[in-house]
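Issue 218. Parser rejects a valid record. Input:
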Amino acid sequence: MLIRLIILLLLFTPLTYAKNSIEDFFNSGGYQQVKISPSGKYYSITIEEGSEVKLVILERKSNKVMSSYAFGEYQKIVNVDWANDERFIMTVQKTVGYLDTKSGQPYYVASNVDGSNRREIMASQRSIYRLLSLLPNDKKHILVTKQHFADDFAAKVHKLNIYNGRESYQADQPKDDVFGMVADIEGNPRIAFSYKEEKHHKLGEGELSIFYKKTAKSNWDKLNLDALGYKKGDSLNIIGMNKEGNLAYLSSDSNRHNSAIYSFNLLTDELKEILANEHVDINNPIYGQHGEVIGVTYDPHYPDFYYFDDKSSNAVFKNLSDTFKSYRLTYTSHSKKNSLSVFQVSADKSPTEFYLYDLKSKQATFIASRNANIDKKQLATVEPFKILARDGVSLNGYLTLPNNAKEPLAAVVMLHGGPHGVRDFWGFNAEAQYLASLGYAVVQVNFRGSGGYGKAFLESGFKKWGREMQDDVTDATLWAIEQNIIDRDKICVYGGSYGGYAALMGVVREPDLYKCAIGYVGVYSLPEMLKSGDSPKSESGRKFLNTVLGEDLADKQNRSPAYNVDKIKARLFIAHGSDDVRVPMEQYHALTNALDKINYPYESMVRDEGHGYHKPKNRHDFYSKMKTFLHESLQ
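Output the parser choked on:
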């Protein structure tokens, strides 16, 4: 195993093959995260392998492997934090499905770079831990919040020794219970917030309170939310602080259509708008060398960057963003001692690549690629589009078109999951590129209910599953037909999770539009969502389901593929995971039992996995079967 990891780590030059294969697009083995240690001496590199994400510590200049880590099947090292140049902290989390967004609670393991003194220092079991600060001036401790069930999960500040796991209560939070905190770059708790949603509150319209300290030594004050124009249900998120510790940055949609970025002066209580966009929300921070917020990114069509101060110390970062314009660029880590930064970039025809950036010489050096085997010259261009739905609602989406193909093309309408708060972005998408490599145009649309386009757009999808949300998919498909981009007689619809629901509802609502549908770990019975899976097990989960689906049983049946199989004319391929807890097998059986009752043919695949396939063989079988199914359906 160690030899294999060393070989992987030395493959710093992308390879070129005659044709990209299923394994090139979907097999595990790619780099997930690269970070640099505080002195710049080491890299921490996480690598996906099967259902695991493992870690290697590499000496930067010599490429020598110092240590490696793995925690077993379905265990993923999802993040690495360098506490000092000798010791780092791994965040480990169990996931049982490729599309699983509600994984088990994380646990935290610390180790020295040589693998010595490896120990679990925190585990979210009876208590939930969250890292608050790495305490840059204290090499032995970090600051965490601990939320114990006996305290109704109120956040309490603790200092934790990263060498022996001992913790000590710091008593540095407001008198009122809070559930989250933000520290300045020195590690002083400066902002705290609480949110209480009772049973009688509408979803998202509970009681929000924000507390702050003017200085590190001040008492806690309560922020007057009315002065900010805040109303119940508005979005308000603290994204970080500046280097000086006098400004907090927040995103808010109070009195506006989309979330904008504001600065809040902790000393003067002055709120100042910094950046807004009329089309999309802005809420993704860019962090500087010391953990301070120096700017934001947002996605109107292509990725865009905005730096709060681009003429002083941040100019070097802005110059780098300008160099990689039309790429998605993210800084993973910074080395404070010798002005080195690691960043990752990706684009439609470029899978994620990691680079080392020397801030003094302004030179970038390639480190590694997440998909080293892919021949980028064979990848397809992704173009944004914007249309009006039949009722005048503006919709955004993306077209992936095969290289040198003659229109109109056979097509796959590919639908994202979620659906609420999730959206498709411009950039590299392995599934879209795979389908394009087979000669298909790929249509993706951010139907109403998707995130990123304001609260009103998101909530306009509530109770509209199978109705207006489905009409948006149809309208995007018809637009592509009218533009002579895709062939009316050669269209398939595909999606995972909610996308699987929308794929099957597509062939229910529009039986003559799609020749086939592929449902992957999909929802097929809305009434079943209130019975099985993990969402209905909590009061908040049940409230969410009732809010987004409605409570009328007959109405939900009318909007469920499993209750409307008699309307289907298309060929069907249904894939599921037998251990799926997000969308359990009851959903698969609801659909297939209904199809069996009317003797309607379908193809299926059930594997011993969770919400999406992890294992390389299962991924290969699924996408190989998809290829054959599409060819037979659209030839």
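Fixed in the parser; the record now loads. The first strand starts at residue 31 and ends at 36.
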